[in-house]
Amino acid sequence: MSTILQTIDLRMTYHVGKMDVHALRGLSLEVERGEFLAIMGPSGCGKSTLLHLCGGLLTPTEGKVLVDGEEITASSDARRTDVRRRKIGFVFQKFNLFPTLTAEGNLKLAERIFGKGSGNGERRREVLSLLKLESKMRHKPLELSGGEQQRVAIARALVNEPALILADEPTGNLDSENSEIVLSMLRDLNKKTNQTIVMITHNPEAAQYADRIIHMRDGHVVSEERPVAPPVPEGTELEGVHS
Amino acid sequence: MDSLVFENVRHRPLRTIISLSGVAIGVVLTVLTVGLAHGMLRNTAERQANVSAEIMFYAAGDFSPATGQALGLDTLYKTAILEGTSRVQPIAGVAEVSPVAQYLQTSVSGVGFEIVEGVDFASYSNVTDLKIVDGRFAVGDEAVVDRRYARDKKDINGQPIAIGSKILLFGRPVPVVGIYEPEIGARLKLPLDTLQRLVVNGAEKCSLLLIKVKNPAEQDQVAAALRATYPSNRIVMSRDLPSIVSGSIGSLEVFLKVVVRLAAVVSTLVILLAMYTTIIERTREIGVLKSLGASKTFIVVTIVKEALLIAVLGILVGAAVSVLGKFGVEAATSLHVDVELKWLAIAAVIGLVSSVAGALYPAIRAAYQDPVKALSYE
Ligand SMILES: Nc1ncnc2c1ncn2[C@@H]1O[C@H](COP(=O)(O)OP(=O)(O)OP(=O)(O)O)[C@@H](O)[C@H]1O
Ligand SMILES: [Mg+2]
C-alpha cells in the first residue's frame, strides 16, 4: 500500500493579539491509499486546523504535508491551490453548496474549476447515482433536505476524482437518519471505489464506519484504534448523533 | 454562459437593476449630450445651406442675438452698400441686400428661449431659398413659421399650429398667416418693421445684412471691398459659418469631455459598490471556490464577468433610453438630437471599461481572501 497523505512534525501556532495559540504541536500522520480514517478529539484540539493544512488552505508554522507525494507546505499559494484542485475534495459540516446553482450546477462548477470545461455529463450522472441523487439533479440546495445537500456536496467533492476526500464533521448538521445514510455512502464509496477519506467527527458511532480512528488532544495524536466490530449493521439507528 | 455568473446576476434583481442603471445613466448621459451638441451643429449647417447670400454684414463686435445689442445695425447700410452715399461709393458686384433683425424671446411654449426674426420679405426671398408653402407672408402684427415648427408646437389654445392659429409673441396673441420651407434661421418670422416697432420703437435697425453677390466666384473681392469701406463692421462669409459656430462652442467640447468622464466615473463607482457588496455578501462562497481549488485568476475573472454582464445589460438599456430620449426631446422642444452609432459605441466601450475598472478592486480583494476565514464567515 502506498501513502497518499503524510504530515511530518506539523506545528501550527495562531497569534491572537499577544497570545500564541498552539493548535498543533508536532503532529505526524500517515494515511494509506484507499483508507477511511476518522479523526476524533475534543473541541479545539486542532482537528480542523489539521484538515485545512492537509488541504493546503493554511500553511503550517513548521513541518511538512505531502499529498500523493507532492510537498505542499513549502510551495507558493498558487501551487498549493493547484494541488488542492487536482487532488483534494473538501466536504464541510455546513454543506457549502452554491445556493443559486442546481445540484448539477454545483458539480459543473467544480468541473469548470478543475479545468474540464463544460464537464463530463457521464461522470456527473455516475457520481450522482452513486449518492442516489439522480432525481435531484435539477434541484437547488434550498429544495433539498440536509442529508441530500450533504450528498450533493460529497458528489461535488468526488466529481473530479480526487485522490483524497477531506471531510470536516460531514454529519455534524444532520439528524441521525441522514447521518447514517451519508456515512454508509461514504463507506460504500471507500469500499467500492477505493476512495481515500479522512473524516473528522465528534461522534464515536460515526467513527465506527472508518477503518482506523485516531484520537487527538491538544494538538497531538494521543491514540489510535481500529474498530474491531464490523461497522454498524444496515438499518441500525445511530444514537446520540447531535446536529 | 457561465451559470454561476448568470445566476448571481439573476439572484439579486434589485442590485442588478441598480448597478445596471448606473451604467445605463452613463450611456444616456454620453449619447444624449453629444447627440444634442452634434444635432445643434448639424442643424445650423443645414439651415445655413438654405441661405444663398454669401456674405453677412454685422455691426462691430459680437453678432450673437443673445448679447442684448441685438438690433445694433442701421438699415441705412443697405442703401449705402447698394447705392453709395455722399461719403462712400457703392460696393460693386452686389446683387441684393436684405436686413434681418433677430430677437430672443421666451419660447412660445413657455420653456426656454427662441429667436424671432424680423425680415423684409421681398429682399429676403432673394437671398434665401425661402418659399411660402401655405398662406402668405406676414404683414403688420402677423407671423409666419416653418413647417416643422407648425408640426411640433402648439398655439395659445394648445392646438397644432395652422393658418389662422394664434401664438404668443412679445406677450400678445399674434395670428400665423403663412408656413414656409425650408428651415432658415429662426423658425418664427415677422415683418421687419413690426419687430422694429416692438423692440426699438420703430427705429430703422437690424441685426445683420444678408448680402448676395452677382457672381459667387467674386465673393471674396466683394467681401474685401466691404471690409475696406466699412472697417469697423464685422464681415462673415456664409461658407465659414458652420466652423464659426463649432468654434464658438469650443467650450462645449470641454463640457462634452466633462460629461463623458462623469459618465465613466458614475459607472465605475456604481459597479465598484455593487461588486464590493456582492463579494462581502458572498465571502463564504469565495472560500468554497478556493476550497474547490479555484485560482486567484479564476475568482477575479468570475467577478469581472459578472460586472461585464451587468454592464452589457446596462448598455442595452442605456441605448434604448437614449433613442427614446431623442424622440422625447425632439417632440417636446425644437432641439435636434443626433444619436450616433459612433457615440453609442464609445459609450458602450466606456461602460465596459469602467465596469471592469470598478469590479477589479473587489475582485482582487476577493481573490486574496484567506480561505479558512472566508469559509467560517457567517
Ligand atoms: N484563525 C484562528 N485564529 C486564532 N486561533 C484559531 C484560529 N483557528 C483556530 N484557532 C484556535 O486553534 C485551536 C484549534 O482549532 P480547530 O478549529 O482546529 O479545533 P477543532 O478541533 O476543529 O475544534 P472543533 O471540534 O470545535 O471544530 C483552537 O484553540 C482555536 O481557538
Ligand atoms: Mg473544527
How do the helices and strands line up, and which of them pair or pack?
The complex is a heterodimer of chains A (243) and B (378).
Chain A: E1 3-16, E2 19-32, E3 36-40, H1 47-54, E4 62-67, E5 70-71, H2 77-87, E6 88-91, H3 103-114, H4 121-130, H5 146-158, E7 164-168, H6 176-193, E8 196-200, H7 204-207, E9 212-217, E10 220-225
Parallel strand pairs in A: 3-8, 3-9, 6-7, 7-8
Antiparallel strand pairs in A: 1-2, 1-4, 4-5, 9-10
Helix pairs in contact in A: 3-5, 4-5, 5-6
Chain B: H1 3-11, H2 13-49, E1 55-58, E2 73-74, H3 76-83, E3 94-106, E4 113-119, H4 121-127, E5 131-135, E6 143-146, H5 147-152, E7 166-169, E8 172-181, E9 188-191, H6 192-200, E10 205-206, E11 208-213, H7 219-229, E12 234-237, H8 241-248, H9 250-281, H10 283-291, H11 296-332, H12 341-367, H13 371-375
Parallel strand pairs in B: 4-9, 6-8
Antiparallel strand pairs in B: 1-11, 1-12, 2-10, 3-4, 3-11, 5-8, 6-9, 7-8
Helix pairs in contact in B: 1-11, 2-8, 2-9, 2-11, 2-12, 9-12, 11-12
Bound molecules: adenosine-5'-triphosphate (ATP) and magnesium ion.
Brief sketch in words of this structure:
Chain A has 243 residues and is an alpha/beta fold. Helix content of chain A is 31%, strand content 28%. Chain A has helices spanning 47-54, 77-87, 103-114, 121-130, 146-158, 176-193, 204-207; strands at residues 3-16, 19-32, 36-40, 62-67, 70-71, 88-91, 164-168, 196-200, 212-217, 220-225.
